[in-house]
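lol ok so funny story. i was supposed to be doing the assay writeup but got distracted and ended up predicting the structure for this chain instead. priorities right. anyway since i did it might as well share w the group, maybe its usefull for someone
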Amino acid sequence: MTTGIFLIVGCSSGDEDAPTPTFAEQSESFEDVDPAAFERGGTTLFDYRTGDEGTGICIIDTEAAVTCTGRVPDDAPDIEVPPFERQRPGAARITADGITYTMVEGVPPAPAALDSGQRITVGDASCGMSQNVELSCSVGETTLDISGDDSAMTLTGDVLDHENHVETPENSDRPAGIDGDYSDTDEPVAVGTMCGAASGNTLVKVREGSVSCLGAQEVIDDYRERRDSEGGGNTLAMTVGEWDCSVPNARRSVELDAGEICYGPDGVVIATPPGSVQP
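and the output, tada:
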């Protein structure tokens, strides 16, 4: 099951910084990969990893558009679409016309990750992962770069106007970077879905079985709250409702590719990414 909301928001603005190197200028440093290896259901999508902990997903949904999750710039406008609450965007979409700040949720698992030194091109859209594990995507003159442990975005191009754009008051007391919880349904998501990747809410991946993003995030949040309040160290295992949750030791964490893992009823398994456990 795939659900997504793409919102075009913002206002036009010219780029004042020096342009980043184009893909043509960097062509010698990339190995072109076959887009078919990254295709699922007619859509091209891939996972990425920047720095030691930065993760996200990119979707090439047409031959002329790329959408990636990550931390948007601080000056990106808020977005709002009924019935969801006003929130910070968790993704950006680029086309030859410019930049759209948006959000996506319930994206199916990507067939593969784009590794360092690789580049994927579909029509006019290209994305390449440098040897320094920094992701660069371009469509025409519009570019999107993602780097660092926080998957921070740097974009070049005009920000497009849209009716769902919400102006942020200059003296707002609202904390920067806090998203509303727009995954407010109990609809089950596909195995492999990374919940919270776009919203900035709790990151949790559905490994097996059927559960909603809200349900999975609630289990992890409850487990963390109890673990912190009851003590016992990061490796404390405990039962949370019908779920058995624990933090694997370092070696087991690598084997499971998980920071925390919970086993629920009916064979459901959810896990957070490695490095998610706070000391």
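Residues 99 and 159 are 5 Å apart (CA to CA). The helical segments are 213-230, 250-256.
back to the writeup now i swear
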